[in-house]
Amino acid sequence: MEVGIFDRKWIEEHLETLPFWQQSTYSDFAATIADEANTFPCVPARMGFLSNHLRYSFIGDPREEQSIKELAQCLKEFAKSSQTFGKYTTLAVFFHIPNDMLASYEVEDYQHLFWTILNHLTKVDDIDWPEEIPTDPAHNEWEFCFNGEPYFISCATPAHKMRRSRHFSTLLMAIQPRWIFEEINDSTAFGRKLKKLIRQRIANYDALPGHPDLKWYGQEDSYEWKQYFLSDDNNSPSKCPFLRMSQK
């Protein structure tokens, strides 16, 4: 299958023709996000899946340069039409994790790999950083941007165990356009109610309390980069590994 973005309907119609790792990865995702007991914490993600607002990309070994090029291609394609996919749209990127990685990678290894991917991705970005988004991750309004679009990214890995909400059978990046949060932020009654519900569901889903870095975008003490990749405990890095400022 060519690299690109696909919706739920297309994947499910063609599932048996896909490579086995893609079949199993998508099936795992569907079973996780739309579990029969309705326990998955992120309610908007579940709604997005059931409403076919989500889009999916299958990408090769995340350690390879070609995979960065594929990710860049998919993000550009997603951005062209994302606002027509639905208000809960997200690009779910599934990376192919070879057996040697599955056997040896710990959470810290995946964390390093995650930031390596973003650092390499920003190197191939040929559009200027949006003027309205700070370039310094230490700013509370910083957000990762690519091709002129700001995104929130949530990463899940096979190595996460205690934090079940960040566990997945392969390396997964859920890449969400910033605009989808306009109706679900702390400034609206709906947003505050949804936040409370999600936090309650996380407490029931994970084997440890919600991570202290989980906050709302724009809060004075909130840093988006800390929320992209959560540890399997309550620790967080002291310095952001994103290097765009030094690269430029």
What does this 3D model show about the protein?
The structure is a single chain. With 248 residues, the chain is α+β, with helices and mostly antiparallel strands. It has 9 helices and 5 strands; from the N terminus they run H-H-H-E-H-E-H-H-E-E-E-H-H-H. The protein has helices at 8-14, 20-33, 43-50, 65-81, 99-104, 107-123, 189-205, 224-228, 244-247, and strands at 55-59, 91-95, 144-146, 149-156, 172-177. Helix 4 (65-81) links the parallel strand 1 (55-59) and strand 2. The radius of gyration is 17 Å and the shape is globular.
Number of strands: 5
User: How many strands, what sense, and barrel or not for the largest sheet?
Assistant: 5 strands, mixed
Residue ranges: pLDDT <50 for 5 or more in a row?
none
Q: What overall geometry do the principal axes of the alpha carbons give?
A: globular
Order of helices and strands: HHHEHEHHEEEHHH
Mean pLDDT: 93
Class of secondary structure makeup: alpha+beta
State the helical fraction.
Answer: 25-40%
Number of helices: 9
Strand content: 5-15%
Instruction: State the strand order across the main sheet.
Output: 1-2-5-4-3
Integer-rounded radius of gyration:
17 Å
Terminal CA distance reads 35 Å
